[in-house]
Design a protein that fits this description.
Two copies of one chain form a homodimer.
Chain A (H helix, E strand, L loop, with lengths): L1 E6 L7 H16 L3 E6 L5 H12 L5 H25 L4 E4 L6 E3 L8 E4 L2 H8 L3 E5 L2 E4 L5 E3 L4 H12 L4 E6 L20 E3 H6 L1 H4 L5 H10 L3 E5 L8 E4 L12 E5 L2 E9 L5 H11 L7 E5 L5 E8 L3 H9 L7 E5 L2 E7 L9 H11 L4 E7 L2 E7 L3 H11 L5
Parallel strand pairs in A: 1-2, 1-9, 2-6, 3-6, 4-7, 9-11, 10-12
Antiparallel strand pairs in A: 4-5, 7-8, 11-12, 13-18, 14-16, 14-17, 15-16, 18-20, 19-20
């Protein structure tokens, strides 16, 4: 098998940990696989360099930031290659440029445009382990070094796995996979063996520490089998994120996600003229505010009540937009003591009674549901924040996720 | 004027010092000059990375060391460019690759083969200050990053200055020029305004901290006007190292150099067969031992005495070679309590009595001269090490170098 592995900043955070990563790679090589490892900068390194830059400018040029930051991954890749060669495993580091990664010109948040795998294929044919400096490429136009922004090394790994048609792309972090829910809330949470791309995207909060949606989306698009596992317990099999067809037994519910970073916006007594809802949500979209759950109910006097949630970070922007609709609304209020719990599972599509089980589970605990929204594979409910953990545990229990 | 500036590790050792370098460049730009600045890694950075590598291997691959070490200069170049842009000076960093520097394939001690100045010329035409990451290029064959070894950033600066036909190449360190002798020995030592390449090469020990012979040799070959000056006192004019023709008033003696790292080898009663001296010095050359001063005198019984000096670092190797000649020699002894003082000056060529003035100056101080050797522009004398400082001061005084 050809395996693309990715080791994040924590996994390569010290010289001992880099040696540990070398040991993981050796074991995989000994099992007869070909290996391309993508590495991040040692943890803390990127922030240190950003602080250096901030010392000189509040607004440094993006292409200089890329020149600056790309050095961190190069250091890790060289060190890991040295460690492997020392143990008799032929290895070679590659910068993003050498790995053939070409991006657009959006420095510090570049998108990968293409990967020329010639160099990597030649090295693999020579029996070499390839250590790619993650997070970077070169721009198509000026051939300057570019970086891919947050989660960039994951993207590097997934994109390489797609371009070179690797059998699997393993993302190593300090967490050994995706759990049915946050184990800090429900200690009986179980690690999932497999999960579909779409479920993973909906369970984003459960993977927040280990996988970014941008990477999962790219894996889905490129049909890359993604594995989330830990470099600290490499003996533990992680969670495979793959396409739905690859999952034989589809659980009705795969996991329970919790999002505490939502604010509920209530617009009461909105004058019910045609297109009012449309103009409100268009204005919010124009301000780049990510509206999540929407409920419209008929209020008194032929007016309408609108309830929706937004990320807490968009709150101030939302207030500005709401100013425009003040005259058409009796009252607008905000509630940030709410949270969103979601039930996710591909099996929902073919099962009935999933939602009602959730509602009764919460009702049994006397938890009031403020807003409900459903999609093909997800049911989300807004409840008071003080019930967050209780709601998660009740739902985890209702669907027997600890079994 | 087009000026190439080079700032070493100490000059860019902290963020404050990088800001100081930005100020120096700004002032030169304000005076109407074009600037290409070559920078080293922040001091300590390269050693830190080498220690990291040593943690994994005693014999790391040279090309991986280059990948590792080249990151340090990239960081400095980006930071300096950010600092300049922030102050409204258009600047761009360039890696060795971007600066067009192509080397041979001898990783960690590569030699510059060619410089394609297109990229730099375009940036200069755009009115930009160019900040080149020193010490690095890319190999001709595999296009991998390579480093130039010790003093590599100086070489980068001199080679760029030669290739782009700069008017001057200023090497900034923490020393403000070349002195007539070591000021720690003779406080009355004076900074030289000008000195020829050949004198500088002979006075290597006086420039040891600021200029390496490899750079001076390249400057001579490429006809680059080299200036040694300090980034800590940029208002002080440094010392210009240039070709002899550019120096109108040629001093008889420019400076007094001292070398304490020599060992005197004495071979007494060498059987005087034809070719014996030749076979001894051939054997030493084959062992890469740098023999400096040689004196042959007739000993007793038709035998020969041979006296010569070698660098202290070659002592052990020399002893091994001497083993082979044991049977042809009555006695071989070594003396490391000696030193070599040298008088250097291009004016010597056209003046007589220079040597005799040196001999009487030392005689007046009762300093015995063990070996003498002379070249066109240098007179070297081996004396007992305890007289080192006294000999330097006596000679400095004899030639009125403090005037």
């Amino acid at each position: 098998m050809l395996k693309v592995l990715k080791f994040g900043g924590t996994s390569v955070g010290t010289l001992e940990r880099i040696q540990n990563v070398a040991n993981i790679i050796k074991k995989i090589k000994d099992e007869g696989h070909d290996v391309i490892a993508v590495v991040s900068a040692m943890s803390g390194e990127t922030n240190k360099l950003l602080e250096y830059a901030a010392n000189f400018s509040n607004n440094p040029e993006a292409n200089e930031i890329d020149m600056l930051l790309s050095s961190g991954e190069r250091v890790t890749s060289a060190l890991l290659s040295i460690a492997l060669n020392e143990q008799g495993y032929k290895a070679t580091s590659m910068s993003g440029r050498e790995a053939g990664i070409v991006t657009d010109n959006a420095h510090t948040k570049a998108r990968i445009e293409s990967i020329d795998t010639t160099n990597m294929k030649n090295a693999l044919n020579d029996g070499k382990v390839i250590i790619v400096a993650g997070f970077q490429g070169v721009t198509e136009d000026s051939k300057r070094v570019s970086t891919l922004g947050r989660g960039g090394s994951d993207l590097t790994a997934v994109a390489i796995a797609g371009a070179i048609e690797a059998d699997v792309c393993e993302i190593y972090t300090d967490v050994d996979g995706i759990y049915t829910t946050d184990p800090r809330i429900e200690p009986r949470a179980k690690k999932l063996d497999k999960i579909s791309y779409d479920e993973m995207l909906e369970l984003a909060s459960l993977g927040a520490k280990v996988l970014q949606n941008r990477s999962v989306e790219m894996a889905k698009k490129l049909n890359v089998n993604l594995v989330s596992r830990s470099s600290f317990t490499p003996e533990v099999e992680g969670t495979l994120i793959t396409k739905e067809e690859n999952i034989m037994e589809k659980p009705v519910v795969s996991g329970i996600a919790l999002d505490r970073n939502q604010v509920r916006v209530g617009m009461y007594g909105v004058i019910d003229r045609p297109g009012i809802a449309s103009s409100i949500f268009t204005a919010l979209a124009d301000a780049n505010i990510n509206v999540d759950m929407i409920v419209q109910t008929r209020g008194l006097d032929g007016t309408t009540d609108l309830d929706f949630t937004i990320p807490r970070t968009d709150w101030e922007d939302c207030k500005k937009v709401m100013e425009k609709f003040k005259t058409e609304t009796k009252n607008i209020d905000y509630n940030d003591t709410i949270c969103k719990v979601s039930i996710v599972g591909v099996g929902m599509k073919s099962h009935t009674g999933v939602a009602s089980k959730a509602f009764s589970a919460l009702a049994n605990e006397n938890i009031n549901i403020r807003i409900i929204s459903t999609s093909e594979i997800k049911i989300s409910m807004v409840v008071e924040e003080k019930y967050a953990e209780l709601a998660v545990r009740a739902l985890h229990d209702a669907y027997n996720l600890d079994k």
